[in-house]
Design goal:
Elements lengths: L26 H31 L2 H5 L8 H23 L13 H9 L2 H4 L1 H23 L9 H22 L5 H6 L8
Helix pairs in contact: 1-3, 1-7, 3-6, 3-7, 6-7
């Protein structure tokens, strides 16, 4: 008779424990939450896109005014690379959306096919801008070496003038990696049927 009686292990009650039925969110409420999250994400992404577009376009007058002050050949090359880099960064911010990658690190087939349909320049624009920025960083390092130890190269405006597009491109790429949109299809799949009262 003692074997027929089972004992329950003692457990401290928690705030989430309740003796009543477990309540869920009905389908209509789930749709509202998903649409609200999607709207908030779209608004935030639009705000960040405008902010980083302004960040990419703001230094352009600084480089273009150099053209009117009898620049050297090296200055013209830096201006050309910098303006190209900044305009390309602005294009990336506006027209090339961040890639959606699923949990396994793969992209859906329809997105991969659509990306292959675009031209080779747009497809590889991020790598081309990265190469331009690398050239600018190498040039700023060579200018810093020419200055030597006599002058503090950290506060030299020429170093910052050369390397600013690379810094902006790095910030934009970091922000793009954080701005990946919410995958609403995954949220739609996670819905469960529940009818409210």
């Amino acid at each position: 008779m003692a074997a027929a009686r089972l004992r329950k292990a003692f457990r401290y009650p928690s705030e989430g424990d309740s003796d009543g039925p477990v309540e869920g969110i009905d389908e209509e409420e789930q749709d509202k939450i998903i649409s609200k999250l999607s709207t908030q994400d779209a608004v935030q992404n639009a705000l960040y896109t405008k902010a980083f577009l302004a960040l990419a376009l703001l230094p352009l007058p600084w480089y273009l005014t150099t053209l009117f002050s009898h620049p050297t050949t090296q200055d013209l090359l830096v201006v050309m690379l910098s303006v190209t880099s900044l305009l390309s960064t602005a294009y990336i911010v506006c027209y090339i959306p961040p890639r959606k990658i699923d949990k396994k690190g793969k992209r859906p087939v329809y997105i991969a096919e659509r990306e292959e349909a675009v031209g080779p320049v747009r497809k590889n624009l991020i790598w081309l801008v990265a190469a331009l920025c690398a050239a600018l960083v190498i040039d700023s390092i060579s200018v810093a070496r020419k200055l030597g130890n006599d002058e503090s190269w950290v506060t030299d405006p020429r170093i910052w003038w050369i390397s600013l597009p690379s810094v902006i491109f790095g910030l934009v790429m970091f922000a793009r990696s954080q701005m990946t949109p919410i995958d609403t299809t995954e949220l739609q799949r996670a819905r469960y049927p529940y009818k409210g009262a």
